[in-house]
Amino acid sequence: MTTTNILSLLGGLALFLYGMQMMGNGLEAAAGDRLKQILEKLTSNRFLGVIVGALVTAVIQSSSATTVMVVGFVNAQMMTLQQAVWIIMGANVGTTITGQLIALDVSAIAPLVAFMGVALIMFTKSAKATDIGQIIAGLGILFIGMNMMSTAMMPLRESKEFVELVTNFSNPLVGILVGAGFTALIQSSSASVGILQALAASGVIGLDGAVYVLFGQNIGTCITAVLASIGTSREAKQATAIHLSFNIIGTTIFTIVCMFTPLVSGVIHLTPYNPTAQIANMHTIFNVCTTILLLPFGKYLAEFAQHILPVENKEIEDERLLYLQPLPKSKKMIGGAAISVKQINDETMHMLSLAYENVNQAFDQLLQFSDKTDEQIYKREDTVNYLDKVISEYISTALATPNLNVNISQALSSYYLMLVDIERISDYAVNMNHQATKRLQGDMTISEIEIIEHMKKLCEDMKNDLDDVEEAERKDDVIDSLVSSWREAQIQALKQKKCSSEVSMMLSRIFTDFERINDHALNVSQELDKITVEIPD
């Protein structure tokens, strides 16, 4: 091969991988906020789960990306390990679509497909059309790259050294290791199978020499999910183990079958003059048959993964954090936005509940002070401040993710703004608790005690209606009016010496804290109203 051929091969591989990334990014932007809902609804039984896994993989042309997505969902406890089994099986079926399209020689229309996608990106104003255009353009670029690789490899059939090298692939162990190693290196079975098809199209290798490499490629594609699961939960690692065991079992079965039966010659006879179709057909047969064979044993695959990677009963590093988990570290991660929004929502609502626990206890302290409750309020305030810092950092990272769609970007921004208001709610509760330390309960009149009880009830009502912005706004107006009338009444009581100056000063500060708590609560309600992403339970 000349330098030009080598550069064409590398350029073709670059376009192939970039096209695949474009398709994944397009799917993320188009459906990132709905991927979890789609997967959850359609994985209620094993057959639908397999179909969903196959369809998602067919769209993004990458079983690795689908598996990494599943690892992320399992890690975030948004999907069970059993649901993950079916999607992983389907992903292995869906990845065969790339090879079949290559065998159909769609490279002739690839430039047209790429042009159509770019036209949608450049000449439409609709965000949805732009996202779909990205998927279409990625598909076209992928096959342009495939055609470049195939053309660049044509001279290899004249190289005796290379032909002798690939003949060693007929040794099952050598072929499997080469296929697994090369696929692990470029982290894409679709690309490595495509390169194998390009070699076959160039007349360098036949199916009898390529079959074991093909099986090894299915094992090598697991490396992406393995790397992505580093630093995640045991449950996420179990999902990766299922993916790996699925392909190892399939490779073992098909290696034995190919060694002792005429399966390879039978596949060759299906399309005797089309070597790329032979590889595509064997790839499809391998994954479809392995899925059919293992479908009844999905439960046992999950149990096996749980047995070799049992969940450790270790102490939580920081029990203050209930929901936020790090996303799998992989550039192929799709669905990360859905995971982030779900976890951020749950952790923010957890923070809100803690702030309101402080509010309730602070009102109780005004009526009956307790040193133990005083400690609980300050400890909870530390937790709220900690959550404010951690969630803010998590949101900042999520906002920097490329290809966020408008809905998710708005949701993340709203949660970020909410954190300030929630933190201030807890601060004002601490202020009220500080007023309670003056222990003026015995100096308060019955009417003043009733006002404090009324304020506590209004705060509880406001919290319960935060998801209804119109009701929250109405209640805020009522609270402003009540505070104004209470202040006037307090001034009159002070003039008539019906209350002490100390109690009056305390109540004045409490009115301010109470009013500001509900102002911040209204801000939270208004931000919640801006969120259009459906948050799954």
From TrEMBL:
Gene3D superfamilies: Phosphate transport system protein phou homolog 2, domain 2. InterPro entries: Na/Pi_transpt (IPR003841), NaPi_cotrn-rel/YqeW-like (IPR004633), PhoU-like_sf (IPR038078), PhoU_dom (IPR026022). It is a multi-pass membrane protein. The keyword Cell membrane applies. It holds the Pfam family PhoU. The chain crosses the membrane at residues 48-72, 108-124, 136-156, 176-199, 211-230, 242-264, 285-302. This is Na/Pi cotransporter family protein. It comes from Holdemanella hominis.
